[in-house]
Amino acid sequence: MALTPDDVVTKQFQHVRFKDGFDPDEVDDFLDEIVIEWRKALEENAELKAKLAAYESGEAAAAPAVAEAPAPAPVVQAAPAAEAAPSGSATATAGIIELAQRLHDEHVAEGEAKRNQLIADAENEVNRIRTEAEAKQREETARHERERNTLEARITELRNFERDYRTQLRSYIEGQLRDLDEKSASTDSTPVSAIGL
């Protein structure tokens, strides 16, 4: 696979459930691909530099004696290039690892910020619901208290009415009994012939 810088920039990793960040195996595999491609590029670069140096040294040689001297030169020039390749590869690998680590840290920080925001939103919602419930409870308690006071006043009014009604009924019955007793006493003393019967 020919890896380009755009591939590195646009690479998307799968999110892993129940963990922060990306699937470590997928990230490691991708970094391994990057390292392989970069090593190939560095080896090819070193090889091309050696060929260029050999070509330039071959072109500069005019005599066969001089031509023998440049023969070791490409080897000497190729050796530093070959030696530079691992350090360049290490630098490139370190840069890619640093980039991957930075991306990882950014995603983790973004995830933590989102988590904190969700928790804050949930806490605000809980506080809002609790406040509304407490206000509703106070309102219902006040309404029930008003209803209770109204019912207690009505009960007191009905008890007073009952007491007054019993008193009036008793007075009326007692008055009727007195009248009946008076009439019966007056009828006992009056002869039947005087009444007209």
TrEMBL record:
The keyword Cell wall biogenesis/degradation does not apply. PANTHER family: CELL DIVISION PROTEIN DIVIVA. GO terms for cellular component: cytoplasm. NCBIfam families: DivI1A_domain. Keywords: Cell cycle, Cell division, Coiled coil, Cytoplasm. One of its GO terms (biological process) is cell division. Belongs to the DivIVA family. Residues 119-154 form a coiled coil. It is found in: Cytoplasm. Its main location: cytoplasm. InterPro entries: DivIVA_domain (IPR019933), DivIVA_fam (IPR007793). This is Cell wall synthesis protein Wag31.
